[in-house]
Amino acid sequence: MAQPAPPAAPGSERTLTMARAGREAVFSEMRKNPNMFLIGEDIAKLGGVFGTTVGMAEEFGAARVIDTPISETGFIGIATGAAMAGMRPVVEIAFVDFIGVCFNQIYNFAAKTHYMSGGQFKVPLTFMIGYGGGYNDAAQHSQTLFATLGHVPGIKIVTPADAYDAKGLMASCLQDDNVTVWMVHKRLWGLGWLGFPLPKALATVPDHDYTIPFGQSRIWREGGDVTIVGLGLTVHNALQAAEQLASEGISAEVLDLRSVVPLDREGVFKSVAKTGRLVVADEDYMSFGVTSEVLAVVAERDPTVLKAPAVRVAYPDVPVPFSRPLEDFCLPNVERIVAAVKATMKKGK
Amino acid sequence: MTVDIVVPQEMWGESLEGVVVTWIYQNGATVAAGQPIAEIMVEKAQLELVAPASGRLTILAVPETVIGRDQVVGRIETA
Amino acid sequence: MKPNAKQRLWMYEAMYRSRRLDDAVLAAYMEGKTPVFHMGKGPLPGEMHQSFGQEPCAVGVCAHLGKDDAVGAGHRPHHVAVARGVDLKKMVAELFGKKTGLSGGRGGHMHLYSAAVNFFSSGIIAEGMGPGAGMAMARKMQGKPGIAVAYVGDGAANQGAFHEVLNMVGLWKLPFICVIEDNKYGVSVHKKDSTAIAHNADRAASYALAGEFVAGNDPDLIFEAAGRAVERARSGQGGTILELETERLHGHFIGDSGGYRPEAERKAMIDPIPAYRERLLGEKVASAADMIALEAKVQQQVDEAMRFGRESEYPDATDALKCLYA
Predict the structure, then answer these.
(1) In what order do the strands lie in the sheet with B45-50?
(2) Please, what is the Cα angle at C213 between C212 and C215, to 5 degrees?
(3) What's the rounded mean pLDDT across residues A67-93?
């Protein structure tokens, strides 16, 4: 695949995996912007552990698709300096769990340099990161960590749930002059070896370039009885739950946050004000995280919109266990979401 | 003219079986030669299947189907 | 190559400027902090890591650098900032936390940034290594001239970032110099109790870099060695670990008495600035009158900068929320 693919014949829709859609946005920006380059482990020859960079080394060459030693702190620091000096680096961290070895460079230097320099230095740096579990990869390779990254100021974080959003949000990240993080749940990439693609993660993706704004949530399914807020994989679980609930006469609205930072507080509140009930599903650890933040949105704007207490469906505050029954117990799966909705329907007015 | 779509020999390595992960185009779509049209998994590698010709696509092996070497997974009706 | 008279006088002037600034800052820092030492009080609050004794490290290297180059310093950045030519008034205003500071008061003493002269400093040990090397890499990728230098202490040579970055500098032949200011202390721990080998310059072979150790805290010798490292970088031959023996004349930060150091050791330290002054006079590089005139000029600059820092306004409180994103 040395040449870019020829344009699609008219009248042919393409259904892409999230990995492929994300790559399209990267290819497009890399072609437009000679200052952009990719850096990370296993991205040149392998094309990325999760297929984020397939075909890129062939097209752009080793000088722009750089395989690094296993030195996250080192190459993230290097990418930061390059960004400060006018380049636009795209950094691959295959597993979000690995931010532990390089977190200082991300949160203390890259994220803060624009602010600490009073705006003198921009850091146009994009991270491509895989997260999530459910395939028995245990405590150090299955985490989500939205809250860990989202908590520190200076970073924008998006987590698309389908291929259409994957391409648009990636383009937004690449065009933004700040530290941006594009995170995809491993089971949503569309890689056969992590389970066949979830049907709704595949999507029709236009050939042309487009962006999706940060901080804009998306309603996948409208409903009147309860708002289920999800992000990434939990959007898909919520949609399945909504199907099941519909057959039992409960109308659930499924809201995909899409953006962790900035968070669409307005969108969340509007939906909850309409339905009066809230369930929020997140694969990150429960405490001090996205679910807490979503509840805070309602509590501080107007808790009286709630007809019943909100329910959180999140990972319990334990490390991700290995054994299948243990891991399955912890995941924010369809059953738990259905149960949460029923609980909130039972209580209150 | 009908062109068979077969996963190229060099993509198989030592394997005898693969599986169709997803088709990028729908049954009946018009595709161009050289375009990626499907993703196939052989062992742990996800590979791209490219259209051998331009024309109308017929899908034979649907997603999650196990396929063998030399198996015709689809056809393209040219002109 | 030895420094010529002009370069030597430039080095003396920059060292003197840094020193007079450190003296003024020390006096101002202690305002409001006596009789009880409280870091958060007074016009110059926070931690303060001063550069007394380490000035030769800054001037000997920066004498070779120009506008195409980039410099990163660590948590003890003032002498490097001065030698690099960071605007003195804006720098002092930043120390005072004023609106007119380099970052409008958002950075402070350890986080001094000046895009005008491609300078930055950072507060986490060895954190500036990667960004410094990245600036070198950007220049190489862009086909532009210029090299990058990152200053670290001897303690930083044991931090992971040091090794990771230098390996990549060697692997990719980046035009980068790591300057180690070896003052033999990581806060209270002597280098012999923290580092498995005697000279960090010897680690250079591990990364396919050149390594050079310069004894004596001598601006002229540092200038010569730095000249070699700079030439290597500019000519595409790659990076260098330049390890400079120096002296931390005061404690780790203001407020650290340095009581963990043996008295004899402290007494034996030599202040490099008066020593250099004597040498320049002795070798007739300048006359006594010229020296005094130079020093008076520098003193005036420092006084002006301190006045500017004190008299400038604080930022509006809500400015705290601005400047997060570009």
Answers:
(1) B45-50, B36-42, B17-23, B66-68
(2) 145
(3) 97
Q: Under a CB-based contact definition with an 8 Å cutoff, are residues A59 and A32 in contact?
A: no
The answer to whether A192 contacts B34, with C-beta atoms less than 8 Å apart, is no
What confidence score (pLDDT) does residue A10 get? 56
pLDDT tens-place string over residues A163-209: 999 999 999 999 999 999 999 999 999 888 888 889 999 999 999 99
C-alpha distance from C106 to closest chain A C-alpha (Å): 5
Question: Does pLDDT of B24 surpass 50?
Answer: yes
**Residue C319 within a domain:** no
* A15-204 and A218-346 agree in CATH topology: yes
Supply the range of the domain harboring residue C116. Answer: 5-312
CATH for the A218-346 domain, from 3.10.25.10, 3.40.50.920, 3.40.50.300, 1.10.10.60: 3.40.50.920
State pLDDT tens for residues A81-131: 999 999 999 999 999 999 999 999 999 999 999 999 999 999 999 999 999
Domains annotated on chain B, with CATH: 2-77 (2.40.50.100)
Active site residue A141: yes
Q: Which residues in chain C have their CB less than 8 angstroms from residue A76's CB?
A: 130
Q: Which of A141, A151, A208, A236 is catalytic?
A: A141
| Regions of chain C with pLDDT less than 70 | none
Query: What is the ipTM score, two decimals?
Result: 0.92
Beta bridge partners of C72: C120, C150
Banded pLDDT at B39 (limits 50, 70, 90):
very high
Cα C294 from Cα C287, distance rounded (Å): 11
Q: Is the pLDDT of residue A1 over 50?
A: no
Exposure string for C145-168, b = 16+ CB within 10 A, e = fewer = ebbbbbbbbbbbbbbbbbbbbbbb
Is residue C292 one of the residues assigned to a domain? yes
- Would the CB atoms of A193 and B29 count as touching at under 8 Å? no
Strand partners, A314: A282
Nearest CA to A211 among A31, A25, A35? A25
C133 touches chain A (CB under 8 A): yes
Structural domain includes residue C323 = no
Q: Measure CB to CB from residue A71 to each of C107, C168, C325 and give the nearest one.
A: C168
Q: Residue B10: is its pLDDT beyond 90? A: no
C325 within some domain: no
Position A4 scores a pLDDT of 47
Are A174 and A88 in contact by the 8 Å Cβ rule? The answer is yes
**Partner A contacted by B11 (CB < 8 A):** no
How many alpha carbons fall within 13 Å on the CB side of residue A220? 30
Nearest to A326 by CA among A95, A134, A96: A134
Q: pTM for the whole thing?
A: 0.93
Contacts of A33 in chain C (CB under 8 A): none
Q: Is C177 on the interface with A (CB under 8 A)?
A: no
Q: How many domains does chain C have?
A: 1
The superfamily CATH assigns to domain A15-204 is Thiamin diphosphate (ThDP)-binding fold, Pyr/PP domains (3.40.50.970)
Angle between the N-to-C axes of helices C219-234 and C272-282, in degrees from 0 to 180, rounded to the nearest 10 = 90
